[in-house]
Amino acid sequence: MENSIFTGLMTKLEKRTARVAVLGLGYVGLPLAAVFCEAGLQVTGIDPVEEKINEINNGHSYVLDIPGAQVEKLVKKGLLIATTDFSALKDADAVSICVPTPLRKTGDPDLSFIVSATESLAPYLHPGMVVVLESSTYPGTTRELVLSKLCEVSGLEVGKDFFLAFSPERVDPGRTDWTTYNTPKVIGGITPACTQIAAAWYSLALQTVVPVTSTEVAEMAKLLENTFRMINIGLVNELAIMCDRLGVDVWEVIEAAATKPFGFMKFTPGPGLGGHCIPIDPLYLSWKLRSLNYNARFIELASEINTNMPRFALGKIQDALNERSKPLKNSRVLVLGVAYKPDIDDLRESPALDVIGLLIKKGARVSYHDPYIPTISHDEWALESVDSLMAEVKTADCVAIITNHSAYDYPAILATANLIVDTRNALGKAGQNHPKVVRL
Ligand code: SAJ
To answer: Would the CB of 309 count as within 6 Å of ligand 1?
Structure first.
């Protein structure tokens, strides 16, 4: 049911006079702010980290997907303003919340960033405002946590005085084919009017908006997307363990299966599951279901298998050295690639950190190289990426390819190394049945 507040906000959106605020200027928030600016909307970016604010206001970018020149252009045009001052929200008509949703040490969801952002926003919530939460989280968060706090503090009625929706982020940092602008965007509101107004807002700036009937549907869609991925990676990781027992080359098996033109989707095994989405989002879902007395067994099992892969990779390294009468202890092991996936500089949840920690615990003399990551400090150890890569490859007792950056000259590495454990099939066919190569 439309009221004057609804039509007033809709008119501001249609005239593009609605003032936008983006809370949280990370790899999701900054590209989202930029795409709203490109649509001609005036955007205030708010983040508590002063360095980020200064970078933006000085026309620089710290986010892979947003060139500094674009930030400079938007700031110079007065379309993008950045501040640490949350009171800027009092002038906003449309607010996107793009804050992290990590896990606590206990493995439980850490909703502190969403709570903090909501508490910062609540005092400034006013009639005619639309709020969209983008952070990946369990179904029910928007309604149970964000809505209740906003209503409690403001006394306003959702769907009539203000509008609230959830829209999962689908940013894949470094990707150029699918961007914030052209990736379809699911949006679900607390009420039909919330869905309608949030979809109208996002449709000003994004190519495709997909309205759904509730915030829970939108929250759950995101978790399905990433749980699907995590479980299928767990499946091929278990396949790698099975093939190891069977003495069958798992990479050849997967290549053969992938020739099926329908009904199959290729995933590849590895030394573990990294990143800030895939290992984490599914655990938000299983955590929520446990509170409803349901055990999400697929997620638990896949998580167990994925978490064990660093140890499986260690076993491969240990066995390969053993075959050459070299104990792991005091052997020189060079780890190639430590980012959580190829061709990026992100270490978050990287399995390389687990593999290196296990190698150090076993007394191996560990070094690493990564063209994107010059230094690592993790738990009680710290390392620097080696300088002369090929000299280190030559002297290492074992080279362990953990992240298959495309920058590496794999034929040269194969020719130079004494022994290679290839956990990513980086060497391809050249590494199959090669006397110097052990594959996962
Ligand atoms: N991995 C495997 N085998 C695979 C695929 C991935 O072991 O077959 C490992 C990677 O090495 C990495 C981890 O899983 O350690 C996650 O890799 P990812 O390719 O899923 O990359 P992410 O974590 O950056 O996932 C993002 C997600 N995007 C969003 O959540 C918006 C995911 O939904 C995308 O599908 C993925 O990018 C993508 O396709 O690149």
So the answer is: no
Cβ of 270 less than 6 Å from ligand 1: yes
For the cut 90, the answer to whether the pLDDT of residue 58 exceeds it is yes
Instruction: With respect to residue 221, please indicate whether it lies within any of the assigned structural domains.
Output: no
Please tell me the predicted confidence (pLDDT) of residue 107: 86
Whether pLDDT at 106 is above 90: no
Q: Per-residue pLDDT tens for 177-213?
A: 999 999 999 999 999 999 999 999 999 999 999 999 9
Q: Which domain holds residue 282?
A: 228-439
**185/249 same-domain check:** no
More confident site: 408 or 276: 408
Which residues are catalytically annotated? Answer: 277
Distance 365 CA to ligand 1 centre (A): 30
Find all residues with CB under 8 Å of 340, minimum gap 6, and list them: 274, 275, 346, 347, 348, 349, 350, 351, 352, 403
Whether 170 is in the pocket of ligand 1, judged by its Cβ within 6 Å, is yes
How much is the pLDDT for 335? 98
- Based on the structure, what is the number of domains in the chain? 2
Whether residues 19 and 149 fall in one domain = yes
Cα 278 to middle of ligand 1, angstroms: 6
Tell me which of 165, 188, 213 is where a domain ends.
213
Distance 267 CA to ligand 1 centre (A): 10
Cβ of 341 closer than 6 Å to ligand 1, yes or no, is yes
Supply the DSSP symbol for 18.
Answer: P
Q: What atom of ligand 1 comes closest to residue 268's alpha carbon?
A: 8
CATH of the domain at 204: 3.40.50.720
Q: Which residues contact 238 (CB under 8 A, 6 or more apart)?
A: 305
Query: Which pair of structure tokens corresponds to residue 390?
Result: 């090929």
Q: For residue 223, is it within any domain?
A: no
- Ligand 1 atom with the smallest distance to the CA of 349 is 15
310 C-alpha to ligand 1 centroid (Å): 17
Pair 276, 416 in one domain:
yes
Would the pLDDT of 1 be above 70?
A: no
Contacts of 98 (CB under 8 A, 6+ apart): 22, 23, 24, 25, 26, 28, 29, 32, 134, 135, 169
